[in-house]
Amino acid sequence: MKKISIVTAALLSVSAYSFAQDVNKLINKDDVTRIIKTLSADDMQGRATFTPGIEKAAQFIESEYKKAGLKPMEGNTGYRQNFTMVRSTPVSLTVSINGKAIAADSAFASSADSFKWAGDKDVQVITVGPDKDFRTEYRKAFKSDTKTLLLVDPKFKSLFSRIKGYIGAGSTNFKGKAKAPIIFVSGKFDNVTSFDVNCEVKTQELPLFNVAGIIPGKTKPNEYVVFSGHYDHLGIIKPDKPGVTDSIANGADDDASGTTAVLSLAKYYKKLDNNARTLIFVAFTAEEIGEYGSQYFAKQVDADKVVAMFNIEMIGKASKFGTNSAFITGFERSDFGKILQKNLEGTAFKFYPDPYPDQDLFYRSDNASLAEVGVPAHTISTDQIDIDKLYHTVGDEFSTLDVDNITSTIRAIALSSRTIVSGQDTPTRVPKKTE
Fold this sequence. Notes:
Radius of gyration: 23 Å
Structural class: alpha/beta
Largest sheet: 11 strands, mixed
């Protein structure tokens, strides 16, 4: 048995080395640099949903698909997967607590419709004290889908202002699927005995689009492997600090890096042209405002035919495990991660389980839309989310990225996905969220 294991290990090393040679030739640093620089440039204006910037980004992605020779998804005449959503924009908001009016810059609303509250008993009042995590608390409020008055300690003034810049600018929902309103208020409130809110919004139906291309499978065309990242970001936001004049949230790491990976992998697999399963490469829209692009995609594709999803989110810098490493969210939910680890044996790169379980990252990215219906859909990332001070700021620019790290991570994904693409391995399914 010992001799067999040594021989097997040697064969694995030779196999990995052979594949690595192809990967290093076909996925090169110069092309990775060109793509991510283009997507995160100032002229993309931060790629916010419903802006000229995201249109420009979509056109660039389409041109890359076309040059690579990808085909549109079945039923589409082009690479765009078009759909519409209802955009609700605040017109006016007045808030008073305990009879005292709240200043306009200290309150904002997330709401799809106009409404009034006058001490309504079905409104939950949540206080985010200085010892709490503001982001965690507002995510809980969104998930609860309950009318909420969220009182935020002044300690979070800077973060409050940033969040107001993109959430307070308006909300987006599928028609007839609006969530309960949330009112955010900055200030200290010891005891809330009364509150009055009057919010007026205007609504309009607007177009959105994922950008997707495929490489049909050679022997298993009805089995799909998805490679994805989101190409939207926050657009123009308020500067992070006094004296800072830059207002473009370039989103170089979040998630121009992931979109770059998708385009690079599309070119790689098209050049190999030996995939047994059909490969779908998709750049999702509207991740930053609710993962709406991936939600729509999940409704259009037969989930039972999707054998795996590689969602790539923020791979711009070394992970907490060092260079040549990344982590996989929901590692324990299927054997997807173990398959990837096996395929990297004999290389310097390693995949690890998600080191931030308290962040609930598995359900915070576009993989969630397919994972919820049973697909082994996981996100691959290198972001040190617990200490990343550039996350959702104007500082997330190309100059802060480690392109060597991005390139090595893309190559590792290419190497580790090969047996899933070839049909040799099929990851176990993820338990459906409703189960």
